[in-house]
Every structure is written in C-alpha cells, then in structure tokens.
C-alpha cells in the first residue's frame, strides 16, 4: 500500500512546485527613469507620478518617482503604455509617453530600466472647447446621433483669423489601436479621416476675437422642434458653421455658413464623428496652393497593414501644422488606445457615459482674466476635458 502511494504523492509535490513556479512568473518588475527635456534639467522629481496602463485589459498602475526620478513597478506581464502628466508649482506642464512597452515575466534578478522623456506642453491660442458626438435618445426612444457639433475657442488675448484653417477627425476612429501608431508611434504626419473641412476666407474675413468661440454642427438645424422634435437633443439652427456639402446628407439652416469640404475619402455621404470616441484636430495648411497640396499623391497615404484600402488615400498632415487636438475613447478598457503621438495629446479622455447619453465632453475652465475665461490646455485630454451637459443646452 505504501508503495502505491509513492507516485500520487510525487505527482502532487510536482504539481505544487509547478504552481509556485507559475505564480513566480506571473509578475514582472520594471523601473521607469523620468528624464526632463533639454533646458529643464533643474526641475525636481518631487510629485511626479508615472502611470502604466495595460493596453489589453486597461489595468492601471501608478508609482511615484524617487528623488532620482525613478518609478518602480511590479505588474502583470503584458503590453503597456507608460505616461506622465506633471505640472510644476510655477504652472509649467510636462508630458511624456512610451506608447508600447512589452513587459515579460522576470527570469532573473535584474530589473529592466526604461527611460521616459518629458517635454513641455505647448499652450495653444485656438483650442477645441467642446465636442458633442455621443447623440441622445430620440422622441420615440431611438438612438439619435444626427446632432453632433464641436466648438472652438480663442484662448488667447489676441484676435485669431479662422480663414483657411481646417477641421478633421483623425483616422483611425474605432475603439482599437491605430495601425498608424503601431507603425510609427512618433508619427511625423497625422492622417485626417474621411472628411476634411476648411474655413473659407481670404485671410482676415472671419476674425475670432479674444475670448470668443465658434460652433460647427454636422447638421445645423433645430433638432428639438419642427420635423425633428427630439426634446433630448440640441437646437443647432443658430450656430455659426455647418459641415455641409450638397452631395452629402447633412442639412443646414439658412443663416448658417457652410464649411468647405476640402477632401472626402471613401463612399460615405453622411459626415459625422465616430461613436467609438473621436480624435478631433484643428490644423493649418500653410501652402500657396491648398487644392494642389491635397491632390498631390506624396501627401496622401492609405491605412497601413491589413486596414489599407488603395481606394482610400488619406490626407497626411505634418505634425507641426496641427494647432490643437483632443482624443476621446469610450471605455476604461480603451485607455491605452492612441491615434496621435504624445507631443500632441498625452492621454485620451475616457467618455464613460455610454452611447446616446446626451452628454458632451468639454474643456475645463482654468481661470478668468479681465472678464475672459481661460481654459485648461496641457495637451492631455485625460486631464483637460470633462463630461458635461452640452453647453448649447445650458
């Protein structure tokens, strides 16, 4: 009998040892060394926190830096994004991000150290103040997203001219990782999505004074009355601009000015923002012949990898031409989803209200100067934006 027990006992011990071995390999250590950009080397590391976000499951880990600027982590294996958003006591903001950090179980005592460079955030004169893309419940309880809009705001103390500026949603819009970012996390050129719209004008026809704003609607009509009658929606019949072109399904009220459709990619005839959470950018095209620039094959690309369609050639906008950009994703699990590099927007805003909630995301008000509102602009949507009732309903 005792001999018969030898094998089962040996098997049990083997399984237990195997389980311990597996448990020991289900975590890994990593040190993130924060490095300031040139010219900011005297900044203290006190108060700086590094955030690791698991790009698959959305799990978030946070660790404070030591006096030497090192944040230590012990996390589950996986593919991570590492980010820092830090504001000094004098109000200077630094951001930094590593887009893809593959962490494997530790097999020895050596802990990997990676460097994360911080750059000072650029304050924009023209900012995206609000994006209402989520839609609402219609008069019969149906999903209604015909009423989207965005608002731009002059955050400076000088007049800005809108003439020639462009607005577009950044491709790739769905709630998954961008193939453009996977190909090149630094992205010297940013892909404008399926529609690129431009303000008309010859240079100084459309001034936006200090502290003023302008709103552009996908369908610039009163969605709360008349043939629409959706009480949960918004009256957009009195906005300044409409994303309108006679070849599209979009509609526009008589007194609303139409934007110029600079480029349309694909077959859709309904211009609207992604319901998975859009990334929206405002940019300039500082060239003498804009139509020629847009038509030039050197300035167009199809989506990389298996997403690519040779019939869909997107406009590639040099990163330095982008004036402002805000990112949004629709769930915590998508916190690691990025469509633009960190220098444009460090972390996406998580719109957690669910689809057709009737809510928008708006930029937080920072201070008031001489009666003029100033909005927070740290190139970090996760910190700069918040969920709100659409401002046009207030």
Question: What is the CA-atom radius of gyration, in angstroms?
Answer: 25 Å
Strand numbers in spatial order across the main sheet = 3-2-5-6-7-1-4
Mean pLDDT: 88
Residues in β-strands, percent: 35-45%
Overall shape: globular
Quickly count the helices.
Answer: 4
Number of strands: 29
Provide the helix percentage.
under 10%
Class based on secondary structure composition and strand pairing: mainly beta
End-to-end C-alpha gap: 83 Å
Q: In total, how many domains does the architecture comprise?
A: 2
Which residue ranges are poorly predicted, with pLDDT under 50 across at least 5 consecutive positions? 1-24
Largest sheet: 7 strands, mixed
Walk me through this protein's architecture.
With 394 residues, the chain is mostly beta strands. It has two domains: 27-120, Immunoglobulins (Immunoglobulin-like, Sandwich), CATH 2.60.40.10; 126-393, no CATH class. It has helices at 2-24, 179-183, 290-295, 381-384; strands at residues 28-36, 49-54, 60-64, 70-75, 78-87, 93-103, 112-120, 126-132, 136-137, 143-144, 149-154, 160-161, 166-170, 189-198, 207-208, 213-217, 241-242, 257-258, 260-264, 280-283, 300-301, 314-318, 322-326, 328-329, 349-350, 360-363, 365-369, 372-375, 385-388. The strands form seven sheets. It has a seven-stranded mixed sheet, with no helix packed on it. It has a seven-stranded mixed sheet with strand order 18-17-16-11-8-26-29. The longest helix is centred in the first third of the chain and has 23 residues, at 2-24. The termini are far apart.
